[in-house]
Amino acid sequence: MRNDLLLRAALGEPTDRVPVWMMRQAGRVLPQYRKIRAGVKDFKEFLAHPELTAEATLQPVSEWDVDAAIIFSDILVIPEAMGFPFEMVENTGPIFTKKINTINDIKALNIVSDETFINPTLETIRLVKKEITGQLPLIGFCGAPWTIFAYMLEGKSGKDFSRARRFLLDEPEAAQLLLEKITQSSIYYLKQQIKNGADIIQIFDTWAGILGYSLFKQYSFPYLQKLFLAIAEMEVPIIIFLRGCPYGIRSLSLLPKAVIGLDWMQIPAEARALAGPNLTLQGNLDPSLLYASEERIRSETLSMLKDFGSLHTIANLGHGLYPDIDKEKARIFVDTVKSFRF
Amino acid sequence: MRNDLLLRAALGEPTDRVPVWMMRQAGRVLPQYRKIRAGVKDFKEFLAHPELTAEATLQPVSEWDVDAAIIFSDILVIPEAMGFPFEMVENTGPIFTKKINTINDIKALNIVSDETFINPTLETIRLVKKEITGQLPLIGFCGAPWTIFAYMLEGKSGKDFSRARRFLLDEPEAAQLLLEKITQSSIYYLKQQIKNGADIIQIFDTWAGILGYSLFKQYSFPYLQKLFLAIAEMEVPIIIFLRGCPYGIRSLSLLPKAVIGLDWMQIPAEARALAGPNLTLQGNLDPSLLYASEERIRSETLSMLKDFGSLHTIANLGHGLYPDIDKEKARIFVDTVKSFRF
Q1: Do the beta carbons of residue B203 and residue B143 sit within 8 Å?
Q2: pTM of the model
Q3: The listed CATH number (3.10.450.50, 3.20.20.210, 3.40.50.2000, 3.40.50.300) that belongs to domain A5-339
Q4: Are B246 and A172 in contact (CB under 8 A)?
Q5: Could you tell me if A247 and A213 are in contact, meaning their C-beta atoms sit under 8 angstroms apart?
Q6: Among residues 112-141 of chain B, which lie with CB inside 8 Å of chain A?
Q7: pLDDT tens readout for residues B261-292
Q8: Sheet of B138-143, strand order
Q9: Do A211 and B289 make contact, defined as CB atoms within 8 angstroms?
Q10: Gyration radius of chain A over CA positions
Q11: Fewer CB near the last or first residue (10 Å), C or N of chain B?
């Protein structure tokens, strides 16, 4: 592979420079994405067209020359494939059309075990691989079991997901069944992604941080661990992104060769102390700093790189690019990382 | 004072047992609150009736025999008093009726310097003090400058407050002017609360955690510090509550005798390491654990108390009571703390 910096950094091998990509690099920040997106009815229609999602996947590579492509998809592909569909409402986010009230609603859901509903993602991977094989790594992804569970129980995005957290305690048996079904579905999904060409995986536990330590240990970590260990057999690196969850960093450090994706609220030195010396960390510039002046973006990026150190580091933002960020500001971030040498 | 446990723990003095109160203890969890609330048109109408807010303030003391009362009010009293009114929309939250776009919108706002708009809060304090003077401490409060700023810029509650964060970087001069006006208004407001009888203050920086370290240092901490130091002159203890902001704990430890209120994502031992040995910590049971069984609430509460240790500790939840929590479950939490001895 012409540029395997990301894979080598993920495995803890030394690299000439720190590799860089950006969460949500494919999408609304790019005018060329907004153009192809405008040609279809809505977001879900867009996801159903692999030739479009493949193009969206490649756009940030052409635009910024980042060190990896990440498939254009959505973490809610899995609940939908389980029989729990969503609508994407403009300016609101996803809304599920069914509701989970009892264990029977969960028993009615499938474990994903064939390609019917995930084929658009897999076809996207196949199309993208035709373009970048031998060039750059392709990142596959899914949501963590708890995060998917949180969306499904809440029925939409939320701030506290207190309905989802309440369900864990009111209906522990039902909650475990759903978490298990999501985990099994995600194992199948990621394995198919890897078989079709994904070189590295990221698992998003975006809502880990609203669980306190006690509920995280019980309802997030065991399923993350199961998913991680099943996928680790395929011998691709796995990044686990956590938001707002310092105790999670310590738990993840128990997983052999995990890469830990940090949100922007973590201070690199403190995350390193929690993770121990051997794991690779990915992160974590505050995405809102891309609203700042060129000079500030450069100095904040350099300061972040120095805080992380040269080894075991992948540069990224601490959360996805906000859609109203200027793509030239994102370029300053990428270029600053790429031109920096320790 | 018959029960000054909270004040003594806040000052770092030894106490026979750990004092306990609950954020949002006055409000929808209690049927007796829902009853008096039903007698008026809406939440804002309720706030305008000090005889009702005083009653709501005292209800949790009668119900659970907690170690302090906290005035029933809202942090958005300050923006309203500055000339930036809000409506409270049922099931949605606050919506501001004006919008801040430029520095001129900020120049048009007042610094609160008379009692006109804050009088209902002050009258609530006077009424409550008639009942509990010599009995229990009364907690006054306000929002932290950054948190109030975040609501004002966003126009409502949010998840990421990315408009507010963008404004910090796009319009730093305007942002500083607004933060300064909020700070000055809050200093006046808290001083009047104390003069009218508040025995201890809590400042809520609920949205500190969506600022990364760099923006927190620049736009939250300096204003928190200014507010803290101005109020500390009045010689009452001051609790500063932070959500999702571990670097904030370290910053606050620089403030002499501050009490740090912890959210439920902080592990007590790690918070203690960040805060140093001398400050009192308040926290931090995951409020969703009050959906659990009696047995689990007891064991989680005991485990939290042991993690905090006997000195420099105030027991609380890590966030406000959720409105659908059973008041008997809250009682188990309070009683478990009150009967525990190290």
Answers
A1: yes
A2: 0.95
A3: 3.20.20.210
A4: no
A5: yes
A6: none
A7: 999 999 999 999 999 999 999 999 999 999 99
A8: B69-70, B138-143, B200-205, B238-242, B259-261, B280-285, B313-317
A9: no
A10: 19
A11: C
